[in-house]
């Protein structure tokens, strides 16, 4: 497997969504309700934002830089939120400097996943930037929503569960993009956006 493909697979929804659900389950089991609510809200907001933009722009072939409709990178958006969110949540209740240090490798991973999307010709740089902006906005909301929260349980347990899920799901692909394209075709048949 090509190194860029190996890297890009860590951003697939088949990895990031199970990661998000595993984190949600940990918060539910530990009784960390404020973290659970914040996490659920931002994951839903990030996913729906990407989906709505993909559906909305799907009828606009001339609008995209690659000769196809503009499509923000869901891999980049969800990687920014999920991996960045894991870093923020694992360092919840710690001083701001510690949280920043925890965030740097997570954002570096998200950035590398974004670059991989361009290298494998799945997205243009502007689509990756759009994904990074969506995920970064959701991450900022998570930071604000959980600024005073503390993680119940060990941050190492959170990281261990995340590693197990990410490695177990790596290489799996879910056809979410194709499903969004089908939905968009149905919607735009009756309501053209860019025609």
Automatic annotation (TrEMBL):
- In this chain the Phosphatidic acid phosphatase type 2/haloperoxidase domain maps to 39-143
Q: Which SUPFAM superfamilies match?
A: Acid phosphatase/Vanadium-dependent haloperoxidase
Keywords carried by this UniProt record: Membrane, Transmembrane, Transmembrane helix
Q: Which residues cross the membrane?
A: 6-27, 39-57, 77-93, 100-120, 126-143, 155-176
Specify whether Transmembrane helix is a keyword of the entry. Answer: yes
Under the heading InterPro entries, the entry gives: PAP2/HPO, PAP2/HPO_sf
- UniProt name for this protein: PAP2 superfamily protein
| Protein source organism | mine drainage metagenome
